[in-house]
């Protein structure tokens, strides 16, 4: 390579991160700099999620080479592959009666094979000590995993991973079921360098909750205590409303003792939490927090008098979060009967906000603001807001003009809606061609003066074909848009 065309070696991994993996292999023979940069880009993030993936077996085999293993910076493991391996094994046992069946070999499309589930897990555990430069680790054990596997091989694998990687991992993200938490996070486990922790705890479908889940909360409290001097970002999701209050008291106390917390995300059953304890913990970190996300766990009934009421009545109308840039809250705080007590200055404690997200955290049957008039009245004028994420039931022609008036300098807008409704007597024609009528309704609103630059829309009810039509319609309605996508 000519000397005048050389780039700093740090630039190559960034360039190659946008290169398809099939092309990276052709770059190995260009020169030494390309070889190392291409290897870093190809093996920098490794995913072990499904036996059906072409790279699953190959990654396990390749990572046994220390030269490749030290390239890995991020490792993602989904325990669902254990379910697939067990299914292969059960099918093999049922077919073994034929007498001429070859030995079990679990293969992928590339031909790489392992003899059993245990062989795959042993191979993964042999690789873990070689990942000396690993900084990010994610482990997923979702609710669809059978109990026998969740409390057996999956639990053992997660525990072995954390024990092997505890001295190197900086970003930890795990999704577990209740009974596995005390095993995977023993009190002796200390993550020496962890900076970002995300823990989601759920339960499988056939799980029967034991009396009192205090041990789970005690274990999580101990884990927070063990990393309180290094962690800067914490995310906890505990959706079970049956958890005991005394356990949350201990957990909030440990969260308040974290020394350098800058980002906090809690999805908790706030009806089980004392309001004063939540406020005390938040006030401890109010001067340092840059991102705060609070949503109630889904419950079967709407309970307005929960700890989330801190936003309405307890906080003074002053800027007590001077560094906060991102705020995410649940819609439950904006709903009747509490909405009548919420004045238009509820955002005053967050004067430095640049991003606001309002999402559903309760069943939508409790949302009687189907035209969201109340919701829009409770979004006061904020000229400094640049990004807004909003969940709504019905998208109509009044929403976007209201947002334009409330947030004139908005640049990013994320909209998630259930349906589209127009205020017209010609409802039959609207149903047959809703995008045309919606476009005509927006043109009457003169939205061209709103200099929004990025728009993302999503819906769980409309197919992708319809959403693409709405995307094209929004592009024409907002000439200033640089990007417009469908999630």
Q: Which labels suit this protein?
A:
487 residues; 33% helix; globular
Give structural notes.
The chain is α/β, with parallel strands linked by helices and 487 residues long. Helix content is 33%, strand content 18%. Strands 1-2-5-6-7-8-9-10-11-12-13-14-15-16 form a 14-stranded parallel beta sheet. Helix 11 (214-226) packs parallel to helix 12 (245-256) and helix 12 (245-256) packs parallel to helix 13 (275-284). The protein is globular, with a radius of gyration of 26 Å.
* Low-confidence blocks of residues: 1-5, 100-104, 108-112, 336-340
Q: Major β-sheet, in short?
A: 14 strands, parallel
Number of helices: 19
Tell me the overall shape. globular
Percent of residues in helical segments?
A: 25-40%
Give the helix/strand class: alpha/beta
Radius of gyration: 26 Å
Distance between the termini: 42 Å
With strands numbered from the N-terminus, the spatial order across the biggest sheet is 1-2-5-6-7-8-9-10-11-12-13-14-15-16
Number of strands: 16
Strand content: 15-25%
The averaged pLDDT comes out at 77
Layout of helices and strands, plus pairs?
Elements: H1 11-16, H2 21-24, H3 32-43, E1 45-48, H4 56-62, H5 66-69, E2 74-78, H6 80-95, E3 106-107, E4 113-114, H7 117-127, E5 136-140, H8 147-150, H9 153-165, E6 171-177, H10 181-184, E7 196-202, H11 214-226, E8 233-237, H12 245-256, E9 263-268, H13 275-284, E10 291-296, H14 310-313, E11 326-330, E12 355-359, H15 373-377, E13 387-395, H16 399-406, E14 412-420, H17 427-432, H18 434-443, E15 454-458, H19 464-477, E16 483-486
Parallel strand pairs: 1-2, 2-5, 5-6, 6-7, 7-8, 8-9, 9-10, 10-11, 11-12, 12-13, 13-14, 14-15, 15-16
Antiparallel strand pairs: 3-4
């Amino acid at each position: 390579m000519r000397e005048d065309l050389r780039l700093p070696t740090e630039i190559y991994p960034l360039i190659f991160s946008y290169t398809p993996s099939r092309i990276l292999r052709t770059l190995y023979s260009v020169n030494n700099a390309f070889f190392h940069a291409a290897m870093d880009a190809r093996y920098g993030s490794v995913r072990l999620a499904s036996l059906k993936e072409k790279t699953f077996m190959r990654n396990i085999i390749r990572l046994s080479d220390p030269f490749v293993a030290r390239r890995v910076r991020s490792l993602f493991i989904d325990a669902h592959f254990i379910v697939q391996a067990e299914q292969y094994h059960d099918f093999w046992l049922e077919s073994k009666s034929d007498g001429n069946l070859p030995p079990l070999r679990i293969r992928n499309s590339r031909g790489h094979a392992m003899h059993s589930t245990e062989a795959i897990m042993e191979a993964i555990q042999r690789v873990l000590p070689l990942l000396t430069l690993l900084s990010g680790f994610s482990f997923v054990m979702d609710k669809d995993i059978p109990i026998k596997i969740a409390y057996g091989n999956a639990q053992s694998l997660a525990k072995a991973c954390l024990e092997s990687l505890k001295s190197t991992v900086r970003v930890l993200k795990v999704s577990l079921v209740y009974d596995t938490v005390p095993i995977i996070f023993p009190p002796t486990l200390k993550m020496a360098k962890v900076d970002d922790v995300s823990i989601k705890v759920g339960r499988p479908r056939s799980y029967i909750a034991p009396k009192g889940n205090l041990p789970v909360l005690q274990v999580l409290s101990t884990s927070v205590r063990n990393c309180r001097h290094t962690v800067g970002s914490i995310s906890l999701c505990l959706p079970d409303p049956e958890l005991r209050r005394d356990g949350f008291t201990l957990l909030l106390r440990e969260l308040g003792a974290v020394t350098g917390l800058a980002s906090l995300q809690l999805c908790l059953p706030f009806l089980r939490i004392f309001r004063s304890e939540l406020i005390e913990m938040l006030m401890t970190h109010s001067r340092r927090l840059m991102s705060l996300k609070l949503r109630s766990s889904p419950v079967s009934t709407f309970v307005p008098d929960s700890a989330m009421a801190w936003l309405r009545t307890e906080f003074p109308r002053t800027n007590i979060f001077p560094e906060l840039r991102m705020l995410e809250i649940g819609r439950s705080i904006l709903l009747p009967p509490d909405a009548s007590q919420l004045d238009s200055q509820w955002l005053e404690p967050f004067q430095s906000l640049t991003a606001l997200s309002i999402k559903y955290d309760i069943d939508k049957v409790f949302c009687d603001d189907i035209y969201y008039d109340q919701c829009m009245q409770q979004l006061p004028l904020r000229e400094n807001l640049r990004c807004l994420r909003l969940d709504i039931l019905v998208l109509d022609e009044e929403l976007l003009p209201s947002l334009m008036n409330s947030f004139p300098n908005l640049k990013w807008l994320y909209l998630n809606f259930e349906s589209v409704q127009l205020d017209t007597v010609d409802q039959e024609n609207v149903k047959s061609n809703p995008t045309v009528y919606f476009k005509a309704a927006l043109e009457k609103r003169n939205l061209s003066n709103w200099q929004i630059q990025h728009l993302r829309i999503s819906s769980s009810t409309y197919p992708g074909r319809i959403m693409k039509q709405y995307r094209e319609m929004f592009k024409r309605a907002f000439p200033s848009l640089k990007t417009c996508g469908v999630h």
